[in-house]
Amino acid sequence: MTSKPSGTVTFLFTDIEGSTVLAQRYPDRLPALLTRHREILQGAIEAQNGYIFQVVGDSFSAAFHSGSDALRAALDAQIQLQHEDWKGTPINVRMGIHTGVAELAFDPHTQGPYAGYATIALTQRIMSVGHGGQILVSQTTYNLARDILIEQSEFIDMGEHHLKSILRPVHLYQVCVPGLALQFPPLKTLDYSPHNLPEQLTSFVGREKEVAEVKDLLDAARLVTLTGSGGTGKTRLALQTAAEQIGNFQDGVWLIELASLQDPTYIISTVASTFNLREAQGTPLLDMVTDFLRIKHLLLVLDNCEHLVAACAELADHLLRACSKLKLIATSRESLDINGETIYRVPSLKEMEATQLFADRARKIDARFQLTERNAAAISQICERLDGIPLAIELAAARIKLFTPDQIAQRLDDRFKLLSGGSRTALPRQQTLWALIDWSYQSLTELERQALCRLAVFAGGWSYEAAEAVIGEEQAMDGLSGLVNKSLVNVEQHESEIRYRFLETIRQYALEKLLESHNAAEARVRHLDYFFSYGQRAEENRLSSPTATWQQQIETEQDNLRAALRWAVESQPRVALQLVYVLSNFWLTRGLMTEGCDWCRAALARAESLSHQTDVVLPLTQAYLALAMLSVNHGQHAAAQTAAKQGIQLARTLDDPIWLVRSLNFLGLASAYAGDDALAFSSLQEGEALCRKWNYQQDLASVLQSLAYITLELRGQRAVEQIQDYLEESLSISQSSANLNALVMTEGTSARLALYKGNFQEARKHADRMLALHEEMGDQLSITSHNSEVAHVLRQYGNLEEALTLYKTTIQEWREFGHRGAVSHQLECLAFIAKAKEQGERAVRLMGAAEALREVSSSPMTPNEHMLYDREVAELRTGLDKPVFAALWAEGRTMTMDQAIAYAVTENRE
Fold first, then answer.
1. How do beta strands 51-56 and 59-64 pair?
2. Residues 288, 140 share a domain
3. Does residue 662 form part of some domain?
4. Domain total for the chain?
5. Residue 804 or residue 373, greater confidence
6. Using one digit for the tens of pLDDT, what is the confidence trace for 709-752?
């Protein structure tokens, strides 16, 4: 072998399966067998020019110049091993092969090991999931070696597998030849562990020691905060550490990205959206999130906390106290300063790691680049001059297409001498980074500079189409590609779409340059125009698209829509009014009622001075309608009444009465909830009359649904015929629509109508169809709500066992959603069943637990629920001695939510 493999290297790792047990079982025989094992492996590896760089016990680590060499060595060794006489001792060797980037430490006095943590770690994981006698190779090695196997050999496709500490699934292949074992047990891979960590398009270089240290700290503490100035690699270290924790947390590893948030009030909604939690009427979103996380064993990564440090500290402290199985990693330029926090200062890269990072990133820019003795000194000088800051090193490496390492080092010296007196920040390391970014900026073309500055208006990333709208077609094609090539813009793969993003430090620099250029207003206007149109298109597609698809469209650009709204409120209040209306259905379906109401109020307050302008009447009406809809669903019925009345007053001046109908509808609902029966009926009846006059069929269906609902709630079974009339007409209108939302309403209406007629089987048929539609739409919350409603109906019709089975499932699901109000109602329903089954003591305990839970959830009963509840409690009181009843009730009140649920779903032992 003339040289040791470096650059692109294929690794072969082997070990003896169950060697620890063998050592205990065959202590006298094993040493001689291990010697023979080493001879076979060493001979096979060296025959293919392999470099054995580590032998630990029975484990071999070898490097090869090519995948084919590694594969031939593995096959030769495995054939010899399986045909050797091991004297009855089961010597079974498993082998893993993977090809990737790895450099030898460039030091003439060092023989190894390799600097290429990601490649080496993946090879180790591939080997460890196999079985004795098995050879596994990665997709990369398969692609390189599949055409050059020895005769009669083959690859068996093992599919994708999740390996411990490896973020993305890995495609594996088993190598087979005649004479080797073919059948093995399933690979010892992880079951899927949920996470939302992004795929990294560049390799993770160095930091093995730091990852190990952070993992050790996380084992001992529940909050580890990674601190350091911008560009030090806090986020990347956090993501790598989190990735290596996949499999250690039953409920997954979850990233909460905060860099794009400007308002701390949206932190909790960002966390909620990560877990698809919705704000529920009468339950604060923080309580929903807390209850959801309370029983979860998971890891949260709060990334980029520095600009929201007080709010992040408050949230972290609250969650750590309330959720005993939760752990946190935070990244911030300063600590959160709360109890239980362990601070880890992210150090600069060591010289070898920094050199490896430069070489790795330079090779991404120019595949011909190699780390050599000739350029090593210059690269070392560059890394030292840049203080080992990863972002700075990556930016310097991006210049490799234009300059040699010597030229880069010389220009860095010139640039830093020029900028050494700058006052960007008090931190020397930050001065270094800022100077490096500035040098990168000065080296851009004018088109690229304009693109960099104007792209700073985006929040949380952007699509290519959005970039075209904000910076123009030419800048998007040439400017954006230039910025990507020079490592100033990151590229991310999001399912089928490519998106772009600044690192936060570069975004801050670009934003400062934008403000200096006096082009900020124009860029923000273009940004607003694009996202206003984007929101309008999404809203237009809402009724014809699956709920999950439509919601995902908005969620992808939620940070940008917030930024657009913020700018609209400041500078274009008329557009702000329109945009809050456009987004109102998204806020409603995602349970973001608080955020939606806040934006509506902000837009309305800003537009007060415009109320005299005729072209603002419609947007004002729409914004008040949005506020009424969100408020009534949030349980703020008085606020909903006020907003609806304002909308009605404005709508009466419009020529198009459709907005009057819609405002009247929400005034009716809000008034019914607020206890104003007369106003509820008069509002809805006026809306009904207008719909009939102007032939507003779809709105008539909604108004009739509202009339049926409030008639049931306020008049009950005394008005069954009237309720049936409302529902039948609403049903006939809804059936004419083909979109999923209308079909759901149709099936739901049919189910309720059948119930009112006493036809339980017909009701169940329509309810099952509605469930199938919810499943098609991917709406798990509606599925749980539906099943709860079915359980209520089963209970009311005396099918207690079937209802009990459903409740045992739905109460657990409501707990998963963090909806304490729903859990308390389920406990009451389970108590009603216990009472019906003459389990009075059990019923009283459940009632006590439900009461305590309702108090902390701020979730009141509906009038009908209260009437049934009062009757059932009164009957329980009469069936038990007063002291016994009080003691059982008090016992129930002492239960936590989890204890109450466990008691409720456990078979009765009384």
1. antiparallel
2. no
3. no
4. 6
5. 804
6. 888 778 767 787 888 888 888 888 877 765 566 667 767 777 87
Asked if residue 137 lies in contact with residue 145, where contact means CB atoms within 8 angstroms, the answer is: yes
Identity of the amino acid at 189: T
Among 97-101, 247-251, 480-484, 678-682, whose mean pLDDT is lowest?
247-251
H-helix or E-strand containing 897?
Answer: helix 897-905
Return the H-helix or E-strand segment holding 102.
Answer: strand 93-104
Q: In angstroms, how far is CA 797 from the centroid of its own chain?
A: 41
Q: For every residue of 256-278, which 3-state class applies, written as one string?
A: EECCCCCCHHHHHHHHHHHCCCC
Of 424, 421, 429, nearest to 230 by C-alpha is 429
Pairing state between β 114-115 and 327-332? unpaired
359 and 452 both lie in a single domain: no
Give which of 489, 572, 585 is closest to 529, Cα–Cα.
572
Is residue 429 over pLDDT 60?
no
**Which amino acid would we find at residue 521?**
A
Query: From residue 356, how far is each of 23, 45, 85, 350, 801 by CA, in Å?
Result: 39, 26, 45, 10, 66
Domain boundary among 345, 365, 399: 345
Residue 190 DSSP class: B
Task: Using alpha carbons only, give the angle 543, 547, 550 rounded to the nearest 5 degrees.
Answer: 80
Does position 355 have pLDDT exceeding 50, yes or no? yes
pLDDT of res. 149:
58
Count CA within 13 A, CB hemisphere, residue 797. 17
What number is the average pLDDT over the span 392-419? 79
pLDDT tier at 246, thresholds 50, 70, 90: confident
pLDDT-derived band at 687, boundaries 50, 70, 90:
very high
Name the residue type at position 284.
Answer: P
Strands 154-161 and 223-227: unpaired
In a domain, 826, yes or no: yes
Strand partners, 136: 96, 174
Same domain, 224 and 306: yes
- pLDDT tens sequence across 620-664: 999 999 999 999 888 789 999 999 999 999 999 998 899 999 999
Whether the ω angle into residue 31 lies within 30 degrees of 0, i.e. cis, is no
Among 366, 367, 450, which Cα is nearest to 408's?
A: 366
Q: Any idea which of 6-20, 539-553, 687-701 has the lowest mean pLDDT? A: 539-553
- CA 387/CA 390 separation, integer angstroms: 9
CB 202, CB 484: distance < 8 Å: no
Q: What is the DSSP letter of 189?
A: P
CB 188 within 8 A of CB 144: no
**Res 427: pLDDT:** 46
Determine the average pLDDT of the residues in 807-834.
Answer: 89
Phi, psi of 604 (to 5 degrees): -70, -40
Q: Which residue has the tokens 């092969």?
A: 97
Cα–Cα dist 859/869, whole Å: 14
Statement to judge: residues 216 and 242 lie in one domain: yes
Torsion sign, CA atoms 258, 424, 231, 394: positive
Would you put residue 487 in left (φ > 0), alpha (ψ -120 to 50) or beta? left
pLDDT score of 713:
74
Give me the domain span that covers residue 413.
351-442
Structure tokens, 735: 């059936």
Contact assessment for residue 397 and residue 358, using Cβ atoms and an 8 Å cutoff: yes
CA–CA dist 14, 76 (Å, integer): 13
pLDDT beyond 80 at 888: yes
Cα torsion through 95, 100, 106, 107, rounded to 10: -10
User: Alpha helices, DSSP H only, in 424-497?
Assistant: 428-442, 446-454, 464-471, 473-474, 480-485
- Residue 219 pLDDT > 50: yes
Q: Please give the full DSSP string across 405-432, using - where no structure is assigned.
A: HHHHHHHHHHHHHHHTT--S-S-HHHHH
Indicate which CATH number applies to the domain containing 275: 3.40.50.300
**What average pLDDT does this structure show over 135-153?**
78
Same domain, 309 and 412: no
Considering the domain architecture, whether residues 213 and 309 belong to the same structural domain is answered as: yes
